[in-house]
Amino acid sequence: MLxxxxxxxxxxxxxxxxxxxxxxxxxxKLGATGEDFTNVFFAAILALxxxxxxxxxxQALMVLRSEEAEGRLEPLMATATARLGWLMSxxxxxxxxxxxxxxxxxxxxxxxxxxxxxxTPGRVATLAAAALVHVPATLVIAGAVxxxxxxxxxxxxxxxWSVYALAMLTGPLGEALSLPGSFRGVSPFSHTPALPSADxxxxxxxxxxxxxxxxxxxxxxxxxxxxxxxxxx
Length: 233
What we know:
- By secondary structure, the chain is mainly alpha-helical.
- Helix content is 72%, strand content 0%.
């Protein structure tokens, strides 16, 4: 992801020459607007990558369902391993992994752009922060997956990817599909500030983190209470 970030960052100096109304409209459909076209470019790339990286969280958490569906979980629970510890180990890995991926993405962008434009430390700080603001939306998606696994493991795979697809359609793709603002508001991606082209607003990020925490707790409680093996066909 550091390399991906560097590739995008290296384009920062060249993107100004691509500025025109059609490109600006394309970036605006990804939620990125502003006077500095380079910042708009980075904001659009981060919005798109943020949505894509969320697929990692879904896929990583689907391991929970796979282990249960394939019958590996019940023997494990017969040992000293507790349900909560097993579940939380996967959740912590996904949360930490998401943060690291976004941090590497923003850092790579900052290093490459900083080397080309100057002020590398400043560019790294700005773009790393711009990448990290996408973490809360990803955690909402991850929390929804945990909740679905806790409530109904058998159907959690289909439902989890359906939630992700809905978030994509109503979020990054919502403007392109000309969806009403009320529909686009359904997606957690729609509530992420488009840094670095926009100002940082903490309220929506805190709301996303709260929502992620609540639905994750619901999933954990539900998982502790339901019978194991329900993911099997």
